[in-house]
Amino acid sequence: MITAHDLHKAFKTKTGTVNAVQGVDFQAHDGQITGLLGPNGAGKTTTLRMLYTLMQPDRGEVRVDGIDARKDPAAVRRALGVLPDARGVYKRLTARENIAYFGELHGMSRAQIEQRTRTLAQALDMGDILDRQTEGFSQGQRTKTAIARALVHDPRNVILDEPTNGLDVMTTRAMRGFLRGLREEGRCVIFSSHIMQEVAALCDRIVIIAKGQVVAAGTADELRAQTGEDNLEDAFVKAIGSDEGLHA
Ligand SMILES: Nc1ncnc2c1ncn2[C@@H]1O[C@H](COP(=O)(O)OP(=O)(O)OP(=O)(O)O)[C@@H](O)[C@H]1O
């Protein structure tokens, strides 16, 4: 389970201060997919970066399985699998070597790494790319490699920044199936997207972020009820006050 409480983050730039995240609060539960939905620049990536300890919040608290990220960031990292916005796949290594390298960093044995790689490569349909050097990989192939690498240590909690960004229809469908599998295994899954249809297709709970704040949260039915709109698209538009993010 992942809890964000009153998160704030501002960036000082040459032209002034950007208040990227201004009091974000939500909970993501085990056995559920929670979608962070919001238009470009809403603060999704900054929120996720604070959840996975890459960035310290200016204010507020992150807890993963009850562990305070400020007090024990290493334990939080062990409990998390993260697909960051910059996929950062090592291009001199094969996909298998990328996965194994992360396994080694987590202190896993060679046998454990081999067994996990087999499971993940099958789930992500990576058979034909596993032993190819990742230089020249397509976006989808890089994303799959980065996801397998993120999950090698079998984390209970999974955070994915725009996992279907740039993927074709078939790969997106396969990715959705994979994320549902993580939910069925009882994991806590959070993913961000700026596309409403993407979130609607997958998520048990939706957290809508606009201008650094949570403007609505709940199941699709709850969001419709909260906004007084019959369809989710209208509910989303009403919650964020514009129609950005309605179309891929
Ligand atoms: N390192 C930084 N320095 C300055 N401003 C930043 C920095 N990181 C993010 N921002 C600003 O903070 C705001 C939120 O950005 P963020 O990347 O979190 O949005 P997002 O919801 O993930 O958007 P997108 O859907 O476009 O990826 C934006 O205005 C962005 O320009």
TrEMBL record:
<protein>
    <submittedName>
        <fullName>ABC-type Na+ transport system, ATPase component</fullName>
    </submittedName>
</protein>
<keyword id="KW-0536">Nodulation</keyword>
<keyword id="KW-0067">ATP-binding</keyword>
<keyword id="KW-0813">Transport</keyword>
<comment type="similarity">
    <text>Belongs to the ABC transporter superfamily.</text>
</comment>
<dbReference type="InterPro" id="IPR050763">
    <property type="entry name" value="ABC_transporter_ATP-binding"/>
</dbReference>
<dbReference type="InterPro" id="IPR027417">
    <property type="entry name" value="P-loop_NTPase"/>
</dbReference>
<dbReference type="GO" id="GO:0005524">
    <property type="term" value="F:ATP binding"/>
</dbReference>
<dbReference type="GO" id="GO:0016887">
    <property type="term" value="F:ATP hydrolysis activity"/>
</dbReference>
<dbReference type="InterPro" id="IPR003593">
    <property type="entry name" value="AAA+_ATPase"/>
</dbReference>
<dbReference type="InterPro" id="IPR003439">
    <property type="entry name" value="ABC_transporter-like_ATP-bd"/>
</dbReference>
<feature type="domain" description="ABC transporter">
    <location>
        <begin position="2"/>
        <end position="236"/>
    </location>
</feature>
<keyword id="KW-0547">Nucleotide-binding</keyword>
<dbReference type="Pfam" id="PF00005">
    <property type="entry name" value="ABC_tran"/>
</dbReference>
